Amino acid sequence: MAEQKKDSADGTEKRREQQEAQRQEVKVAAKHEPVDKLCGNLVSVTSETDIKLPVAPQAKKLPGKSNPRLKKSSRKHVQWVQHLYSLPNPEYSSKLVNFNGVHPSFVKLGVWYSERVILGSNERCFALLGAIKTLIEDIETPPTQDFYRHVEDMLQSCTNYLQECRPFAVSMSNALRSFKLQLRPVDSSLSDEEKRARLLGAIETYISNDMVKAWDAICLRVNEKIWEEDVILTYGCSSLISKILLRAKNNGKNFSVIIADSRPLLEGRELLRRLVSAHIKCSYVLNDHHSSVMKRASKVLVGAHALLTNGCLMSRIGTAQLALAAHNFNKPVLVCCEIYKFSELVQTDSFEYNDIGDPDLLYSVDGSSAPSPLRSYRNSSKLDTLNLLYDITPPHLITGVATESAILPCTSVPAILRINSAENM
């Protein structure tokens, strides 16, 4: 037994010596082998196995156009209103052909909103309700889904697309909220056609009661405040103000109008065209000259984008400047606003929430593409251009608000909102 253990120990020792000698031979061979030969072996292995690295896919480019979502906007943003800037506009050339989940009427409406083809709170709200009517008329419900739920899902995707094109006006948000209340199940026994007719009827009722009849009532109330030989100062182009003045002219009242306007939209020219066509005596000035004509004015009539809970007026930018001048000259300022434009928002400045227009329009003198001396400042590194569309007028500058219910003070907005909320419960 002792001899066997001694033989096995000698065999193990010999194997260890042989393994150590082989490792030393490998180290010496590797040390003296040329480096280019080793590199050649690596290259040959790589070429034989044909290894390919994944390449990032290149963005598809439209002929003659670049995708605005893939490139960074060249416009400089004003830092302290950075939250107001939205994403670049979607690529309309592809969405007009096929855009999944969005009705064609909403695609077209989104382009009109973004390109500022439709201006004004009333016009934008009216166009939105028209697009919803078209959606309801064309919609086909899947067999396994309820009609109201399918309309709600489709409407959500369509309104999300519109929000990408341009933020909603307060009137649009209120009208959409009122319509969604009609999507509550009332009677499960109704057929899809009966539900469709019910929704279409609700839209017609909203347009008739909250818009058309409201305009008629406001026209009657404001006409009572227009006297013979009055000189009315207004600003921009409000569709409601236009209706009021044309109705007063049809009622045989003799008055004149001063239209204050401002760049870059120069909307007052459209109001001037309408009033002159109706043989109303008009004067036209830019907003920076309103103080020179304020002495001639007997009252100031302005439209509204929204009337906020704290009594502040949100309207076309420049309205606050006009109201301040009227306050200094002791001229009454009457705001003409429908109740469906009342908002629960509270805002004291123009920077918390606003809509931003194209800053390039500020570099044109007359709203046209003709060469302008202001163009030389467009690429200035020391100048950041901001084109806000609305401003905030504090309530102490407003004499009253003409609504379809009555001529009310600005502080009555919370009470009106509570009444409307209780009626919709």
Task: Based on the model shown, name its key terms.
translation initiation factor activity, 10 strands, seven-stranded mixed sheet, globular, three-stranded antiparallel sheet, alpha/beta, Translation initiation factor eIF2B subunit delta, about 425 residues, IF-2B-related, protein biosynthesis, about 10% strand, about 45% helix
Could you explain how this protein is built, in words?
- This protein has 425 residues and is an alpha/beta fold.
- The chain is 45% helix and 10% strand.
- The chain contains 13 helices and 10 strands.
- The chain has helices at residues 2-32, 35-49, 92-95, 104-114, 121-138, 147-165, 170-181, 192-223, 239-250, 268-277, 290-293, 319-328, 413-424; strands spanning 230-235, 255-261, 281-286, 299-302, 306-307, 313-316, 333-336, 390-393, 400-402, 407-408.
- The chain has a 7-stranded mixed β-sheet, with helices on both faces. Strands 5-6-8 form a 3-stranded antiparallel β-sheet, covered by helices on one side.
- Helix 5 runs antiparallel to helix 8 (192-223).
- It is globular and about 125 Å long.
- Residues 26-74 and 90-97 have low confidence and may be disordered.
- Keywords: Cytoplasm, Initiation factor, Protein biosynthesis.
- Residues 1-29 are annotated as: Disordered.
- This is Translation initiation factor eIF2B subunit delta.
- Its main location: cytoplasm.
- GO terms for molecular function: translation initiation factor activity.
